[in-house]
Amino acid sequence: xxxxxxxxxxxxxxxxxxxxxxxxxxxxxxxxxxxxxxxxxxxxxxxxxxxxxxxxxxxxxxxxxxxxxxxxxxxxxxxxxxxxxxxxxxxxxxxxxxxxxxxxxxxxxxxxxxxxxxxxxxxxxxxxxxxxxxxxxxxxxxxxxxxxxxxxxxxxxxxxxxxxxxxxxxxxxxxxxxxxxxxxxxxxxxxxxxxxxxxxxxxxxxxxxxxxxxxxxxxxxxxxxxxxxxxxxxxxxxxxxxxxxxxxxxxxxxxxxxxxxxxxxxxxxxxxxxxxxxxxxxxxxxxxxxxxxxxxxxxxxxxxxxxxxxxxxxxxxxxxxxxxxxxxxxxxxxxxxxxxxxxxxxxxxxxxxxxxxxxxxxxxxxxxxxxxxxxxxxxxxxxxxxxxxxxxxxxxxxxxxxxxxxxxxxxxxxxxxxxxxxxxxxxxxxxxxxxxxxxxxxxxxxxxxxxxxxxxxxxxxxxxxxxxxxxxxxxxxxx
Length: 479
Description:
Elements: H1 3-15, H2 33-53, H3 57-70, E1 76-80, E2 84-89, E3 98-103, H4 111-125, H5 130-142, H6 149-166, H7 171-193, H8 198-215, H9 232-244, H10 249-258, H11 261-291, H12 308-325, H13 330-353, H14 357-379, H15 383-391, H16 397-410, H17 414-467, H18 469-478
Helix pairs in contact: 2-3, 2-4, 2-5, 3-4, 4-5, 6-7, 6-9, 6-12, 7-8, 7-9, 8-9, 8-11, 9-16, 10-11, 10-17, 11-16, 12-13, 12-15, 13-14, 13-15, 14-15, 14-17, 16-17, 17-18
């Protein structure tokens, strides 16, 4: 064939390909109904457990589609709401789709379970047989919590100690903060065993915390010299951070940005309701203390933080505590501590430069979540676990307490009441800034994580070629 003829044939194939130029159609596997139901059931159970354990809806959707795709059941439609997951598989030409729905229970953060589920999804994509995957998923779902109730209560009380350390509290304040937080945590544990709704548990915990802190004012009338230096506001602020530690601020913001409106709306409503429960419990505790003569006067200035070294020590203690009562293992605890120190370092640096508290908190949350999502990929830990530990030291517990105390002590005077509401608005602004900054860091880190994943796969292929060069020669001869 001459050069001119070859050019003409190439031009004709661009317009209308010949039969020889058409790539052979890939043979699709025959998926039976029984197989499809088993795969969908495995995927939806994994997704339900991940959503309960604290993963955002986008990550749950991605996990479900990866599981079903690994077993040839694709494409599927996944619909996640706040309290249910629906997965549907409709083959071309089939009369009816196969649809499964599961109701999602109340969220119980468990980062060890979440880490094991993510590892299971990776094993499934690597070729784990279906029967083995079903058995592993059943074992993970039925596994008990990593730590017992006493360890959880002790870690919750230790979180309050970390906050007290950040405010430069002495040994007396640290001990009283631990006792008050432990009493609040025990109260919530007993009410949880009695199946009391979480809203009323928040009220009861905040009431016990505030009343215990108000009782410390009696120490100034004793012969104990350290009693006069005890600041009840530090004790309450420490407990408020504990009460707000389990709220899914980042998850709600991320679901809203991802377009999961129903899930985000449910989580935001839950967040608001539980925060209102803390405020109501604080108001009840302050009123109770006033009636029996333990009244506290609102602080005239914001609570000052302690020395920089104490701030970093307190941030590390908070990270360890929140990781433990969320059921994390050693690796997550270690990564959480490092990430918390990074985020708090950014917060301190931005405040020194002159950033406002909300802007500094948002910047630190962005930096912490950006580093966290990369570290989560490299170290195979859930990103939501370490991101929570990074932003928790910046939760405005002291501002919430000052605002509520000013509103309660205002009485009929409108000026202190307006001041209190402005403090609460400032605290809400910081909370929104934390959520937005953390979500932005997660989105900014996803392309970096994808780049790292591609580089890792490329290095793996290169290593396999070097170990077995005949594979590359065979592949080139086939082409």
